[in-house]
From TrEMBL:
ATP binds at residue 360. Its main location: membrane. Residues 13-50 form the Leucine-rich repeat-containing N-terminal plant-type domain. The chain crosses the membrane at residues 240-264. PANTHER family: OS05G0588300 PROTEIN, PROTEIN KINASE DOMAIN-CONTAINING PROTEIN. One of its GO terms (cellular component) is membrane. One of its GO terms (molecular function) is ATP binding. It is found in: Membrane. PROSITE patterns: PROTEIN_KINASE_ATP. This is Leucine-rich repeat-containing N-terminal plant-type domain-containing protein. InterPro entries: At_inactive_RLKs (IPR050994), Kinase-like_dom_sf (IPR011009), Leu-rich_rpt (IPR001611), Leu-rich_rpt_4 (IPR025875), LRR_dom_sf (IPR032675), LRR_N_plant-typ (IPR013210), Protein_kinase_ATP_BS (IPR017441).
């Protein structure tokens, strides 16, 4: 007797196995609650499913301590995946071609890792945002990038990419950055609308950078830096008395600088002890991620921390909020509430606390109202 399962159930089951294989083979510092006993779409951290709950469409695990290469035949099996964010981890090795070529992939965030090697030539034609910055990628930009007609943001800064920048001709491109690589040659005409900061730290020329030089400077003569054999050195040795005077003067200067630095440190330490530490935090009012301990309001390490309420499986951090478009919803005694739209069109409510000194219990009571 054979048992026939619905196709949607079979797809989700195979995707669950692929995610478990990825989690098992990839060490991670932060514990994930990925358990076969829990429902994938509603309980697993970092997972978003389609509205009917039949397939995984989003995987967001930024800054969870993922280490090592991404195993083949794991995440590449999530054929309906639209958003993949594995940024700010310690992933290494080559970029998996099966992930970059996922047919439905719209947003790919792999920045701030240790990926190396070339960028695969086969990429998803549906890509809107591709961020591979702050890795160790080498080689040239594939010419197949010209086929990414939906691309709105291409961020490749701080790698070791080489060669000339191809004229991509992507009309929808709004964000572009290839700074601090090893590119050379002339900046393509279609990319000259971007600021000079997008091209710094390379061997590039042409607008918006300096004009390209048509005449190369003459090479210096190999003998120009060598002394003439018939000339004799005119240098003379300093007297012993002058050497002693210079040494004593230098020692006195070092001692004076050390005394000044010592008194400055004492004064600064005294002023720090007298100051009252303040809290500057952001509270996310959406069921996004398991709640993190907020701690006492008078602890300095709590500055610039995101605090999540009503735990959920969605992950994002301060970097996401800084890039998001925001709308003021209201102001209160504890701070200002904002409606923020993240880069992949997810909407959250954020309350920013500024200059607030409050205990954990009072804070939670206020936020629970």
């Amino acid at each position: 007797m054979a048992i026939l399962l619905p196709l949607s159930y079979a797809d989700l089951s195979s995707e669950t196995q692929a995610l478990l294989a990825f989690s098992t083979a990839t060490p991670h510092g932060r514990k994930l609650n990925w358990s076969p006993a829990l429902p994938v779409c509603t309980s697993w951290i970092g997972i978003n499913c389609s509205t009917d709950g039949t397939t995984v469409v989003g995987l967001r695990l930024p800054g969870v301590g993922l280490t090592g290469p991404i195993p083949q035949n794991t995440l590449g099996k999530l054929t309906s995946l639209k958003v993949l964010s594995l940024r700010s981890n310690r992933l290494s090795g080559s970029l998996p071609p099966d992930i970059l070529s996922l047919p439905s992939l719209n947003y790919l965030f792999l920045q701030n890792n240790n990926f190396s090697g070339d960028i695969p030539a086969s990429l998803s034609p549906q890509l809107n945002v591709l961020d591979l910055s702050f890795n160790s990628l080498t080689g040239a930009i594939p010419l197949t990038f010209r086929n990414l007609t939906q691309l709105a943001a291409l961020i490749l800064q701080n790698n070791s990419l080489t060669g000339a920048i191809p004229d991509l001709g992507i009309t929808r491109l709004r964000r572009f950055n290839v700074s601090y690589n090893r590119f050379n040659g002339t900046i393509p005409t279609s990319l000259r609308r971007f600021p000079d900061s997008s091209f710094l730290g390379n061997f590039l020329c042409g607008p918006p950078l300096s004009p390209c030089s048509r005449i190369l400077p003459p090479s210096p003569s190999p003998t120009s830096s060598l002394p003439h054999p018939n000339k004799q050195s005119s240098t003379k040795k300093l007297p012993i008395g002058a050497i002693i005077a210079i040494a004593v003067g230098g020692a006195l200067l070092v001692l004076l600088a050390a005394l000044i630095l010592f008194f400055c440190c004492i004064k600064r330490k005294k002023s720090d002890n007298e100051a009252t530490p303040k809290v500057k935090s952001s509270v996310v009012g959406r069921t996004e991620k398991p709640g993190e301990e907020f701690g006492s309001g008078v602890q300095e390490p709590e500055k610039n921390k995101l605090v999540f309420f009503e735990g959920c499986s969605y992950n994002f951090d301060l970097e996401d909020l800084l890039r998001a478009s925001a709308e003021v919803l209201g102001k209160g005694s504890f701070g200002t509430a904002y409606k923020a739209v993240l880069e992949e069109s997810t909407t959250v409510v954020v309350k920013r606390l500024k200059e607030v000194v409050v205990g954990k219990r009072d804070f939670e009571q206020q936020m629970g109202r």
